[in-house]
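Re: beginner question about structure tokens

> Can someone show what the tokenized structure looks like for a real chain? I only ever see the sequence side.

Sure, here's an example I had lying around. Input first:
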Amino acid sequence: KQWYQRRVRAALFGQQCFKEGQAKCTYGTGCFMLTNTGTDIVFSKHGLLTTVAYKLGDAPTVYALEGAVAIGGEVVRWLRDNLKIISSSNEIEQLSGTVDGTHDLFFVPAF
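And the corresponding structure tokens:
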């Protein structure tokens, strides 16, 4: 898990989210969103994690708030292996294009 945490923070830096309020969402097995909160440590009232975003030389440490859905990307495997509505992961994009809209129905892979 530690390597993934570094990768998510590196993505925030790599996408040049240097200003307070800028955010980066990283998708993979999970979905992780970091928001730059500047040089002040911000504590979430909604279950987000306070973390170090980056530190450059003698400049002050920059912090971020992180939200995570650990199984976000794994939902494709779940659709394939458990529900068996697709036979390969590549089919999910084509399948999603076969509907004309969501009709106010949303699937949130946060289980």
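Each token stands for a local structural state, so reading them left to right follows the chain. Strands lie at 23-27, 31-38, 49-54, 62-69.
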